[in-house]
Amino acid sequence: MIDKYAVFVPNLTNRAENFTSGHRACQGCAEALAVRHVLKALGHDIVISNATGCMEIVSSPLPLTAWNVPWIHVTFENAGAVASGVAAGLKVLMRKGKIPEKRIVSVGMGGDGATTDIGLQALSGALERMHKDFLYVCFDNEAYMNTGIQRSSSTPYGAATTTSPAGKDSIGQHTWKKNMAAIAVAHDIPYVATACSSYPFDLQAKVIKAVESGGPAYLHVLSVCPTGWRIPSHLAIKYGRLAVETGVFPLYEVQDGKYRMTADIPKLRPVRDYLSGQGRFRHLTDTDIDIIQKRVTKEYDKLISLHKSNNG
Amino acid sequence: MPKPMEEYRVEDLNPGCVIDEPGNAVVYHTGNWKSQRPVWNEQKCIKCGVCWNFCPDNAIMRKEGGYFVADYEYCKGCGICAHECITQCITMVEEVV
Ligand SMILES: Cc1ncc(C[n+]2csc(CCOP(=O)(O)OP(=O)(O)O)c2C)c(N)n1
Ligand code: SF4
Ligand SMILES: [Mg+2]
User: Fold this and answer.
1) pLDDT, tens digit (0-9, with 9 covering 90-100), for A245-261
2) CA of A9: which chain B residue's CA is closest?
3) Could you give all domains of chain B from N- to C-terminal order, each with its CATH number?
4) What is the pTM of this model?
């Protein structure tokens, strides 16, 4: 029977699980799934500097750890700086012959709060210094989830959070999502990409490309959070797919400044398909949805024209 | 071999709170969080492993013969596998206590 079906998923991917069972992420957490797949692609020769946030809290209640690779918990604001130090330190240890010469990737990790808000300066410095074998991954669940769903600069327009509540006089978050990938691109680094754990093979391929680029590289991973988005846990993968299919979160990569769209979407679905069903958007009116649709179409068209001009 | 969390004493901790047992979180069983469990219909399963790939808790294993099964010690019952399964061969069944 299996012969009729060419694809056997476990054969397409590294089977080692370096983010172990026993972590305490919520049911259906697609941020934990994103971490799982990023680690599959990275292999063993890495050192992770992880800013505080859900993925750190759920994985490292002393004396337990869900990590099977060298991992440091750092404060909220300095994952970029610590990962820089690790990259520089490894280089010195190799030069002095204290550890064998080989590629060990220094990986900075943080949530959207840690990356787009409080850790932005440390990250910008790291990208500016052009560290080799340096990768930063932002796991973007579009709010400060670990402390109870407060808005960040990565929270999308119209989303209700505990600090951007929707009501008679408020639409919820009233600013547009910060375009963090574009900020990374502005640093002129070799590789920047967006990804989502609903597309695990695309995600893994981008991690590998990021490492192969030599670094510094930046990945922005949309990570669906059922708890904060107010959706049932079994729909976490579906909503990541809808974000991509509606153009709300386009998948693309920027290699040496050249944009390339990486998901094949002949025609975008209406944003309503993505917004409806999520509790954080349930107050939106038809007019609000129209405003969001216009913005999404405009931003998407910008990317398509960059793609076209960069790919002949 | 890591021991259950409750058995650690302050004296067991390393200076700087360094944890020197990689992946010892496996001693913490999240399986009792669930209110429903996935059950596979092997008549419909094509052994593709999509369920395995989308599990956020690495709680799906491949058994002898190529079929998949949840590790109920860790499965939190989120239902992603049942929703993503291509042939819809997984049913979520309510936990009875
Ligand atoms: C300087 C500082 N301010 C506040 C906190 C409290 N804090 C810990 S995690 C967190 C939210 C993290 O949000 P994000 O980076 O988006 O990660 P997520 O939990 O959403 O994955 C906050 C506010 C802190 N640890 N340090
Ligand atoms: S709050 Fe969201 S991101 Fe954090 S563990 Fe729960 S589902 Fe995952
Ligand atoms: Mg967040």
Assistant:
1) 999 999 999 999 999 99
2) B49
3) 43-97 (3.30.70.20)
4) 0.96
